[in-house]
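Good day; I would like, with your permission, to put a structural problem before you. The record follows directly beneath this note:
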Amino acid sequence: MIQLEEITWGKITGIHLLTYVPLFPLAMIGGIILQVFLERFDVYQTLDRNLMMRIQGLSLDILITSAIATLSLTVIGNNLMPSSYLHL
């Protein structure tokens, strides 16, 4: 998307908006577009509810794992007492 912006209006106007747009809303919009497309044109019902639930579970597992992996152990160690209160 950023490259498309650079080719089209970014080079002409010097305005680069997509650099500051978070990826999550764009992924949600892409998911909505994909859902509408599959509802209209998927005659074989490729994606059923069970498959979607498995994909959702895997995505949530990956999200939680990556969030835990980005935690700084130094910061947790320095704030061990306040964080222990959260676990009570």
In short: The two ends are 45 Å apart (CA to CA). The mean pLDDT is 87. The chain is about 75% helix and 0% strand.
